[in-house]
Structures are given as structure tokens and as C-alpha cells.
Amino acid sequence: MPHKLDADQLMQQAIAETGLSDFGDPWFEAPLQALIGYVNRDAGLLSPESSAGVRIQSALTDRLKLVQYFKDHPEAAQERIDLGCAIIGLPRTGSTMVHRLLAAVPGFTALWWWETAFPFPLPGESQTDPTPRQEAAKHMVDWLLTQWPDFESIDPMDAMAVNEEVVLLDRTFLSTTYDSMMPIHDYGYWQADQDHEWAFRDLYRFMQVIQHQRVLQGEARRPWVFKTPHHLMGGIGGLLRVWPDVKLVMTHRHVGQVLPSYCSMCASLSINSSTSYRKDQQGAHWSRRFRTGLERLEALRGRLPAGQIIDVQYGDTVSDPIGMAEAVLAQLGVTADAATRAALDACVKDNAREARPRHKYSADEFGLTPEGIEADFAFYHDAYLTK
Fold this sequence. Notes:
Layout: H1 7-18, H2 29-43, H3 51-72, E1 83-87, H4 95-104, H5 113-117, H6 131-147, H7 166-169, H8 176-181, H9 185-192, H10 197-216, E2 224-227, H11 236-242, E3 248-252, H12 255-270, H13 282-301, E4 309-313, H14 314-319, H15 321-331, H16 338-350, H17 370-376, H18 378-384
Parallel strand pairs: 1-2, 1-3, 3-4
């Protein structure tokens, strides 16, 4: 019998766990209830310890901690979060490498994996020494890789490496993460149609907390490099409401090399925790999600100022990553000096693809064909891959 979640019960468990009771603005309750409704109807969770239950309750505890942090540190509300850029391409388009390269530039920074997993100090932790959270994150990565042993071949996971802000957006219950790790297709379509402004305003507050902690640890404030496919698949409107002038880096790759790979990643996240997951349904779902995101971005592109979107070809990221990064930096108004080039070179050496196992998958197991992908995404390929 699939396990059912209950929003009120999860909120009470979060209150009991933290000893806190103020969730702040209740705007999040509507997406929480919607998410749980889709989970209970479609996800077929094997147990309350399945990924969804744990992730949602953890998100609720962090919402309580977020409100409390500003009560304890009101000065954190004065932190200004500046973005150097946001990488918005589809998954599997080289965006992780672009993210790591730009984040390595001395004038920029990015979220660390351990910060997204544990944005608040642990009990008894010194405000100036996050080592306990870093160690907890390392243990978490080790555990995750035992649960999903093939995940390392799909996407690099390292507690001390940069990570996507979508993990913080999970705490808003408007996130592409959820239909990536559970077969809740209708939730994915629903969340992509929502107004994400409040979610991104909450993201801003999480970023204030993290930046405030870094300043206390003696770090200088720097513009952040964001990256997540969630921007393309639902969040772009919210992102631009909060950071209207942010430069958007759009990574491009043939969808035939992207879509089956992403379906395979979702399979690794879902297949062991759901009774309703069906591989052969994933291709149609993610084809629709990808296509809708690309179509909406194309419409948005026509309304944005010239130069706000910077296009990056996957082939350039693979063949000349440093040249690609320098070209993007130039469009961001950053001159690549000797220190920048040294940082980029070190990043390339540290992120050699050969260091990880090969990712193995086939399109047909997800109900996909090369001809179908070509037809569905001809509008995109013709615009960005044949010039």
C-alpha cells in the first residue's frame, strides 16, 4: 500500500523537531498542499522515509529556522544579494561545467553543496566554523551514493563542490526537483504554470542567511553565479522579478543527447522508492516539460534587452572550456587576467570527465525515438544549433 503524506502532520513534526513554531508568511502552504496532493495521488511512495517525505519535512524545518535566523540576526536582512549571472540551460547541456568555471573566477562565488544541504548552523556549531555541516554533508553524499550507486556516472556529487540553488527552492515547494525524483507529472506541469515570485523572494532570504554567515567567517561579499534547469522549467519569471537585470547564460546542446540522459537520471532517483514509476512514460513527460520551457523562454527572449541572454554551445564547452568561459566573462564585463586564467585552468583539471564512470542509457527504454525528438525540438535546433 503506497504511503500517504499529510501536510499538517509534517508541519507539526517540524515544530516538534525544532522547538520553533513560526513559519513566517503562509504563502507556501498552497504549493505545499498541492505538492502533497500530487504525491499522494501519483507517486506511489513505498514509505514515509521515501525521498519525498524526508525532503518535505526537512524543508519545513528549514522554513522555521529561516524565520528564526532573522530574529536572532536582524542585520542579515541588510545583506544585498548580487548576481553575476544565472545559467539557465536544459539539464545535461554542459551547464555544470560552465557553473564550475564561472564560480572559480576570483570575482565571483557560488553555493557549496554543503550549504544547500545545511544552510543553518547545527546545534552547538560556531558561527565562524561550518566544519560540522561540511562533515555532515560528506556523510550525506556517501549515503546518497549508496542509495543511488549509478548517480556518480550521471552527475558529479561532492559536498565541497558548487551546487544548484534549486535545492534551496525545494523549501518553497515550487521546484523541478520534485517531479525529477517522483512520477508526479501533473505537479511538474502545475508548478511550471505558477507565479514563482514568492519562491524567489524566499530564495533571496536563504541567500542572505548564507552570505551573512560567510561574512562572519571573514569572506568578502562577491556576486553569485546561479545555475539550475529549474529556471527554464518554471522559475524564470520569479528569477527576473527579483533580479530583473541578471545576465542569463543559456547552454545549448542537441536535445537527442540531453533528454534520454535526463530521463536516466530521474530513473535513478525514483525507481527504488515508488510503486508507480514507469520508465516508458518518462520520455513523454520530459519532452513536454523541456519543450514548454524552451518555447516560453523563446517568447521571453523577444521581450528582454539585447545582450541579457548569453548563448553557449555545448561543443565549445567541451572543446575549449577556458576560451568559452573567457568569452562569457567578456560579455559579463569581466576581463580575464592572469589570476582568472589560472583559476579556470585549475577548474578544468579538477573536473576531468574521465575521472567519473560512464553514464549508460538508451532512449527507447523511456519511450523515445531519435525521429520523435528531432520533430519535437526542430524549432529549437533550427534556431540555435545550425548557425
